[in-house]
Specification:
440 residues; mainly beta; six-stranded antiparallel sheet; globular
């Protein structure tokens, strides 16, 4: 089985959204959208990886694959929970009305139906795809609370008196929508309420995730077509503080939001509680081309989510942070899993990492990946954070194909997918920088 360190990568071919992220029986389980036959999107399966520490990952056998009418054309995204020792996986099954005759893994004119499905496992490793699947929320009726096609990505959690589920959907008039359900037994789900979106927040809300932190409730969303700048990846992942009332399943959507990551490559974030009870997030990092023609897609460093004074922070998970203890002088000394640069950056100063540039412009941190992104000019190449308020300390985690910049321990994060980094570090930062890698 393939093993990854720090960043979980595709074991070959294609991956996208993380699914079913959970700490279960002493291990972290991370499932993911997986097309096992080519490094491009196709009929979705659930791949599976496990880790004892969020640092070292080992890929397992495919967990879910299409077997039923309702998931004949894909097992789309979903979530996991544990109950009485069993692992419950909730996901969206899709059935195409019109497969593309030139590629049956694609659908013509978005003519497909979506149903919400459940499969359970006694140990989190073995899944009976032929006999143990059930439909828990059938495809929506014409006048149902959600769209027949674009209702998906169930996230389930335990409330104070019952189990709750949120689904992403659309209202048919160009606004995203959340659908809330309640259950007392994890199998019989009753619709409770719908929460409609706002103009400018995208037309369909993928991968919703609601959770409580010490600072209050937080909502993660991945709205489609929220970006209007003419570049690719118009869908982005956003977050906001919210309040959720269980009895009526009401939620007030605020008028503003943060991007989860200001590099705008991150998508489909999902969270769970780690071994110590910290709210921990992973997400897919989108890649415009396969690496060496063989694999496409990887996940960000696991991040702890906190809400402080109405602002959502994403800091490096302590298990990752503590790995970078060996100080080095040259990139050539770094572990294969990469290295970390710690630096305080002044206004007008910059640092170049293998052709990728990070610089400060007033109260903003900016990046430019033009030199390490090939000819993909239809994607965004320059990026900038909102106004920074807590200082200008950067912790920069460098992988061969991903650079993640944590500003002031998570006040903001800016991460970019890259190609073709070299070993040069160029800088005019007067205070200098420190470079670390993993202990052998």
């Amino acid at each position: 089985m393939q093993k990854d360190k720090i960043h979980l990568k595709s074991p070959g071919n294609w991956i996208n959204d993380p699914n079913g992220f959970i700490y279960y029986r002493g291990k972290y389980h991370l499932f993911y959208q997986y097309f096992p036959w080519a490094p491009q999107w196709g009929t979705m399966h659930w791949g599976h990886a496990v880790s004892k520490d969020l640092v070292n990952w080992e890929h397992q056998e495919i967990a879910l694959f299409p077997t039923k009418y309702e998931d004949q054309n894909g097992c789309f995204s979903g979530s996991a929970l544990e109950y009485r020792g069993r692992l419950y996986l909730y996901y969206t099954g899709v059935h195409y009305h019109q497969p593309d005759p030139d590629n049956i893994h694609l659908c013509r004119n978005e003519q497909f139906l979506s149903s919400q499905m459940l499969i359970t496992s006694r140990d989190g490793m073995r899944f009976d795809n032929f006999h143990n699947k059930s439909v828990i929320i059938p495809c929506m009726e014409e006048n149902g609370p959600g769209d027949r096609t674009h209702t998906r990505d169930p996230k389930v959690w335990r409330g104070s008196d019952a189990w709750y589920m949120v689904l992403g959907s659309t209202d048919g008039d160009g606004l995203g929508k959340l659908l809330f359900y309640r259950s007392t037994d994890l199998t019989d789900w009753k619709f409770v309420n719908a929460v409609s979106g706002k103009n400018g927040f995208g037309w369909m809300w993928e991968c919703p995730d609601y959770f409580e932190t010490e600072g209050g409730g937080v909502l993660l969303l991945s709205p489609m077509e929220i970006m209007k700048d003419g570049k690719k990846d118009t869908a982005q992942t956003i977050c906001m503080p919210v309040e959720f009332e269980e009895t009526t399943c009401t939620m007030q959507i605020p008028n503003t939001y943060q991007f989860v990551d200001y590099g705008l490559d991150l998508y489909a974030a999902q969270t769970t509680l780690d071994e110590e009870g910290r709210r921990t997030m992973v997400a897919w990092m989108r890649m415009p081309q396969p690496v060496d023609g063989a694999w496409s897609g990887m996940f960000c460093i696991p991040r702890v989510v906190e809400l402080r004074k109405g602002h959502v922070y994403f800091r490096v998970h302590p298990n990752i942070e503590k790995m970078y203890t060996k100080q080095i002088l040259y990139v050539s000394e770094a572990d294969r899993a990469g290295y970390k640069i710690s630096v305080d950056i002044g206004d007008g100063e910059s640092i170049g990492i293998g052709g990728y540039w990070i610089f400060r412009r007033g109260c903003h941190i900016c990046t430019d990946r033009s030199n390490v992104f090939g000819r993909h000019t239809d994607y965004r190449l320059q990026f900038m954070t909102p106004e920074i308020k807590e200082g200008y300390h950067l912790d920069i985690y460098v992988d061969h194909h991903l650079i993640e910049i944590f500003i002031n321990d998570g006040e903001y994060v800016l991460s970019n997918v890259v190609y073709g980094l070299d070993n040069r570090i160029q800088t005019d930062i007067e205070a200098g920088y420190r470079m670390y890698t993993l202990e052998s």
